[in-house]
Amino acid sequence: MPVDVTPHDDATTAKRKLVVVGNGMAGARTVEEILSRGGSELFDVTMIGDEPYGNYNRIMLSHVLSGEATLDDDDLMLNPMAWYRENGVTLYSGDSAEGIDRFAKTVTCASGRVIDFDVLIIATGSNTFFPNMDGLRESDGRLARGVFGFRTISDTNGMLQMATARDDVRAVVIGGGLLGLEAAYGLKTQGVDVDVVHSPGHLMNQQLDERGGKVLRNKIEELGVGVHTGKRTTAVLRTDDGTVSGVGFADGESLPADMIVVTAGIRPNVELARSAGLVIERGIVVDDQMRCEDEGSIYAVGECCQHRSEVYGLVAPLWEQAVVLADVITGANPHAEYHGSRLTTKLKVAGVDVAAMGVKGPEREDDEFVQFYEPRSGIYKSVVVRDDKLIGAMLLGDISKANFLTQAFDDKVPLPEERISMLFDMGTPSAETGAAELADDVQVCNCNGVTKGDIVSCVQSGCTSVSEVCAKTRAGKGCGSCKPLVGDIVEFAAGDALTVDKSADWYVPCIPLTKPELIDAIKRQDLRSVSEVFEKLAPDGEDATAKMPLSSLLRVIWGTGWNREPGALFVNDRVHANIQRDGTFSVVPQMKGGVTSPQQLRKIADVAEKYDIPMIKATGGQRIDLLGVKKEDLPKVWKDLDMPSGYAYGKSFRTVKTCVGTDYCRFGLGDSTALGIAIETRYQGLESPAKLKLAVTGCPRNCAEALCKDFGVVAIGDGKWEILVGGAAGAHIRKGDLLATVDSPEEVIRLCGIFIQYYREQAKWLERTYAWVPRIGIEELRAILVDDRDGIVAGLQERIDEAVADYVDPWLDRDEPRSPAQFTSALPLLPLPKVPVR
């Protein structure tokens, strides 16, 4: 149903009726600019948006997909519903404009609503371009089930549901531009196997040259994403029941896939304008004041419009257009003109820093061209100079010179005689002094159109912390690549008045305490439930996003002594199993060190047959996964298995991989199997900020992959063991740092417990060790945990001993469920796809 957000206005002064078709980033930003120029005194503003939300930041959707943000984050929603009421703007959300009568000056909506206007702004943006491909759509024109664009909250939600429904989802992303790589990165972070297919010869060909594309490809492939360039997709392959099974290429080859994400470009959304009789070429044709051709009171702004033959797909030109349009229609500057944008791009693509501006390479014989190309380190830099002016630059992997190059590109600083110094600190402004050197009109945040001058003015108005400045200006709230520079500018502008942003260290946003302070407060006040913590410690009361991190923390502090509230737990934690794509669950029994027995294997086979479990799969953690278990069958499955939980569903200690070690291996230097089993027996199931994966390998050949685990142990001979921490081999690839070399299995087990307990008490919610270890620093961790510099090891040992002694297998809930509904069947709220039985 359409949502009507209508302000109450008792003013009797006649105002002109301003209607904005489109509630996206361009339309809402234009309204913001109009209001800032006194527009509320001039106009009754009405906005029409076909999505049932306020205005949100589409750039943040990639962060939502990767798990770095949620749909509840304030950074995502730029203008929540309350903003429209507070600013006297009528918003019809969840409705769409279907017709414009230019002569009667009305807009007709899908709901049947007819809205009069004096001034009309069309900001309908762009749509995902779906190439003609066999099998892409159903017979009624809808996209096939499993095919997505990447443009809206709905797209992102659909991908997340499918990506997190089961462990073996495969995805193909069609299009290797910025959006495609962000989609691939996000899905890979969610554990999906991803391939990117790109028709041109190299990735991000619109921004990068061939060498830059090659360096980026290396970085993307290091993430575990497959890259296929020079491939034209011609078909979406589907099974007899219509389920997506892969994609087919023009050369006859194919790739398997359960999910297909199409990011092959965007096209201006001009159908409404076309049906109204406006002049359309590639986009809605506008003049330098954003006025539609041959019209006196209809304007267009953003990705839907075409200005001087150019159509822009980046946000920075949108902000420039919005300023001009607001100046013109409010009369703040009736002669304001938009003359086009010189595009400079600075962003983070799948974790890789990229900056590009102007041309990609030399176009004339006398163009100067300087390149630095080092694919081994993932760095590529180039500049193009013509007539002593910078006309193009490209930075990948190291963008420390982006600020200087941006100013040079805008003719604000002279070029050095030694052109190579434009790429390295050889006399040009360094990254450290860049904040002071920047001109006030240099755009710092491309995503939200924030200049250095905006940030400085914000500081001068009284905002003296980075978080305050970001909240007020929105700098850093898009892709995030500008945050370091924003911090530098705030520090430069605030000087001695700079205040530390304490909230950045709070464990949850609603409670003004660091994690150690919060632990102390919970213990002192004996708070044992999430609701008690909210009541006593959260100034503004309950915050839904804080429930899961708080419930995890309470389990760390009190073990089984915390007061369990089902509403504070994710479904996986409520039923001790991992929910799958079709609403069933997976059951992974414990197999310590990956070792099992004929008796256990017979039980697993018998249970799978008895409960008609459709898939039995070996996992990467050396265990067996039973997939497709009904919720109501979980207690019976656990009872018949008579094996402990393997914790494959939780933010906890999960498993210890081992190699054969000295039992059978001819190269074994240490009994890795016995040590792995001993570690898992002692620390099984311990609650932690994020999942913990461990491994013990019997020699440096590393068959158990201990070098890239949260806690890895390697036998090196003479009874010695190396301990590595902070490794990763999933969406992030990182070799662990050497914490210590010890000379006994007992010392390995002791240090393992101390490390885990310190991580449990200090790390942020969902912060994996591969991020936590480098944040703290391996030297610091070694000083604290190995050398006991601060005298806290005894306390850590005492608390880990208490946690171990308090262990209870969660699958014992089968005997006494925690609530009547814990294991009752629940119909899905949305139709779920069927998972094929293989």
From TrEMBL:
Its biological purpose: Catalyzes the reduction of sulfite to sulfide, a step in the biosynthesis of sulfur-containing amino acids and cofactors.
Enzyme class at the top of the EC tree: oxidoreductase
Domain NADH-rubredoxin oxidoreductase C-terminal: 345-411
InterPro entries: BFD-like_2Fe2S-bd_dom, BFD-like_2Fe2S-bd_dom_sf, FAD/NAD-bd_sf, FAD/NAD-binding_dom, FAD/NAD-linked_Rdtase_dimer_sf, NasD-like, NiRdtase/SiRdtase_haem-b_fer, Nit/Sulf_reduc_fer-like_dom_sf
Keywords tagged on the record: 2Fe-2S, 4Fe-4S, FAD, Flavoprotein, Heme, Iron, Iron-sulfur, Metal-binding, Nitrate assimilation, Oxidoreductase, Thioether bond
Domain (FAD/NAD(P)-binding): residue spans on this chain: 17-309
Catalytic function, reaction form: hydrogen sulfide + 6 oxidized [2Fe-2S]-[ferredoxin] + 3 H2O = sulfite + 6 reduced [2Fe-2S]-[ferredoxin] + 7 H(+)
Positions of the Nitrite/sulphite reductase 4Fe-4S domain: 650-785
Limits of the Nitrite/Sulfite reductase ferredoxin-like domain: 579-642
Pathway connected to this protein: Nitrogen metabolism; nitrate reduction (assimilation)
Heme found in the keyword field: yes
Name this polypeptide is given: assimilatory sulfite reductase (ferredoxin)
